[in-house]
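Re-run with default settings, no changes from the original entry. Doing this only to confirm the output is reproducible before filing.
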Amino acid sequence: MDLFKIHCKFDWNEYSIFYTMNILLIGGTGLVGSYLLPKLSKAGHNVFALTRSTWKVPLINKLGAHALQGDILNPDSFTGLVKNPDLIILLAMPAVKPGKRITKRRFDELKEETTGFFRNSIDLAKRYHIPVILPGGTSYNTRDGEVADETWPIYRKGLSGIGEETDIIIDKAIEKGTPKVVQLIYGKIYGNGGLFRLLFEWMQKGKFRTIGNGENCIPNIHADDAAEAILKSVEKIPVGEKFIIADDFAVSQTDFNCHIADLLKLEHPKHIPGFIIRMVLGKDLYQVVTMNCRVTNIKAKTMLGWVPGFPSYREGLENAIGAMVERKPYFSKI
């Protein structure tokens, strides 16, 4: 707890003492952010959530945080509004539009934007002399019975290559010990909102397709469990550590997609040959969605004390699909 300034308050209703931090949340209006903001506020933290959109300001405030309008790619647009932050959490990632071809030009733009998000977040942490929690993705190339852990190198092929420079930036910061860095490496995130809602809508309209044979495994994590992992990291600040945040069970893309259809009582989605995806959407997207990856989350469980509330895709999808079927509010419609 000596890594950051502590604000101690007494809760007369609960008869307990708790610690609060001023947290700068970059990307607090995405899928994970919509689950995380209420949790941080409930834990007693003062959250300053950054957004580029004016219309999202009242939604952020409604979730119990303080909205800051600005852009992490232009820190001067908001740093004057932040007073004595104790911790930075980066969730923002560049937007990739489903169904749109990833050209070389667009790939280069995404890579530059991603690098800017990480570099500027780290620079801010250095400026304020505070820790920063950074994201990552489980892009590991496993074969046969292999299971990847945090010691494995990230497999930067296809669209995952946009984060190539961030690996260097993070490793250098960890090696130097400044700023104090924690990295959470997420599986494919799903929940009520974000790109998963688009997949849900495509599935309902019969437009969704499984790419290739769909036998490859990609780690998954419910957005609520991803948010819980961040909350545990905020509590412990395990400096210099990386954690894989994924559920307990590997599942093929075919089984994952078919279970969504089963929950919606629809026919299983058809398959589309991989070569068509390569031609229409480009090889960068194809290489990511057909990657085979199995991981272990044992380090996060052991060091963070984190346990997924949805240990497999079955429980998680039932929750997420149920929320969307019941038309429960998500961030853009709160």
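Residues 7-333 form a domain with the Rossmann fold fold (CATH 3.40.50.720). The chain is about 40% helix and 15% strand.
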